[in-house]
Specification:
Layout lengths: L4 E5 L3 H11 L3 E5 L3 H8 L8 H9 L4 E4 L2 H5 L4 E4 L5 E2 L4 E2 L2 H13 L4 E4 L7 H9 L4 E3 L9 H6 L4 E5 L4 H17 L7 E5 H31 L4 H9 L20 H14 L6 H21 L5 E5 L14 H11 L3 E5 L7 E2 L2 E2 L4 H7 L2 E4 L13 E2 L8
Parallel strand pairs: 1-2, 1-4, 2-3, 4-7, 7-8, 9-10, 11-12, 11-15, 15-16
Antiparallel strand pairs: 5-6, 13-14
Helix pairs in contact: 1-8, 9-11, 9-12, 11-12, 12-13
């Protein structure tokens, strides 16, 4: 049987996890402008902190090749999956989708007839705009629902597969069904629910899903703020609440604020979509603003210690992560610096002696001694000997 030829543009968590999944049964070429990442992939080494990706690159028989030459990647491809970054642009108050359009323009210049599948997160209505702008009738949108550091696992055991298409175009709808089948083929989980729907609804599913998760994080953060201010036991309240199966015991550990690759930018983009169309809302706007309120509250609590030096324990959002981007701690650090406080950082991933002008101390014992108070998004057992000067809202990691 002829293998499907697939090109994947972008080798972040979404792109690389999809490239690996699809290469279990198909011929896949991963394209990225970062030569170091491509060399690592070709040498079966993961450029990302993801246990499943590390394992599969090292131990599985993958039909996967990486290249920095888009012609090599895109020529003769049956599908081109676009998973390039779409960071939120604070000046335009929308996603920066230029990387997607750059790939599409390369495909058009090559005269490619591949079916394009966008997996980058995009504004609601964006696929339809692309169709009109480039006169495209061969484009799909398939949202991702991946956790950072668990991206490949979440593709192997997906909660659902959604592909957006033009439901009035029979041939394109069949391509959507074919792509969904390719994703199912590589998955370990059986009986996966897949839904083929209109483009714009598929885009909305992604943004509303992540905004709901952000709302949940923000809710438990505000619960924790109330508990702290009233000298209540946060863990007892959350445990009692979450025994209700309608609430469930997930996304309920208070934090410094929601952060990471998706939640901050996706909530802001959804709010921008509401504003663009003058759609009335209260909750969506509150979800965005609640994150700033939480960060300001954390800063106020740190200042109560009147510390000479605040130690920042890890810049990453969670354990076993290599992601600093949009970590809630960044805004908190800026606010602490604006208050005139001195900071030091403990972050083993950073090899320099300072990061963004803040001293880095990668000897843990020296870091503990230097810091008057230590701010930690998640508590680590290595801090137990100085727990009296650790400020964390984490209710689970001490167990």
């Amino acid at each position: 049987m002829k293998k499907t030829k697939i090109a994947v543009a972008g080798t972040g968590y979404v792109g690389l996890s999809n490239a690996i999944l699809l290469s279990l049964n198909n011929e896949v070429t991963a394209y990225d402008i970062n030569e170091e990442k491509i060399n690592m992939i070709n040498n079966h080494v993961s450029p990302l902190a993801d246990e499943c990706i590390i394992d599969y690159l090292k131990n599985k028989n993958l039909n996967l090749h990486g290249t920095t030459d888009y012609r090599n990647a895109f020529n003769n491809a049956d599908f081109v999956v676009i998973s390039t970054p779409t960071n939120y642009d604070s000046e335009t108050n929308h996603f920066d989708t230029s990387s997607i359009e750059c790939v599409i323009e390369k495909l058009l210049a090559l005269g490619s007839d591949a079916t394009i599948v966008i997996k980058s997160t995009i504004p609601v209505g964006y696929t339809q705009q692309l169709r009109k702008k480039y006169n495209l009738n061969n484009i799909l949108f398939s949202p991702e629902f991946l956790r950072e550091g668990k991206a490949l696992y979440d593709n192997l055991y997906p909660s659902r597969i959604i592909v957006g298409t033009d439901m009035e175009n029979d041939s394109l709808t069949k391509k959507a069904e074919e792509f969904a089948a390719l994703l199912k083929q590589g998955a370990v989980k059986e009986d996966i629910t897949s839904i083929i729907m209109q483009y714009t609804e598929a885009e909305a599913v992604k943004l509303f899903s992540n905004t709901y998760l952000a709302m949940r994080v923000a809710y438990f953060n505000e619960l924790d703020t109330y508990a702290q201010e009233n000298h209540l036991n946060t863990e007892a309240i959350i445990t009692g609440m979450c025994l209700d199966p309608r609430i469930g015991n997930h996304y309920n550990n208070p934090s410094l604020g929601y952060g990471g690759y998706c939640l901050p930018k996706d909530t802001k983009q959804l709010l921008a979509n509401y504003r663009d169309k003058n759609v009335p809302n209260n909750i969506i706007e509150a979800i965005v603003h609640s994150n700033d309120t939480r960060k300001n509250y954390v800063v106020s609590k740190i200042k109560e210690y009147a510390p000479d030096i605040v130690g920042i324990y890890r810049l990453t959002m969670k354990a076993d992560s290599d992601n600093f981007r949009a970590s809630a701690v960044w805004d908190i650090m800026d606010k602490l610096l604006d208050s005139g406080l001195k900071l030091v950082i403990y972050e083993p991933i950073v090899k320099e002696d300072n990061y963004n002008g803040i001293p880095v101390i990668n000897n843990l014992e020296d870091f503990k001694k230097t810091s008057n108070v230590i701010l930690a998004n998640r508590f680590d057992k290595v801090l137990e000997d100085v727990s009296e000067k650790v400020y964390t809202t984490d209710i689970y990691s001490r167990d």
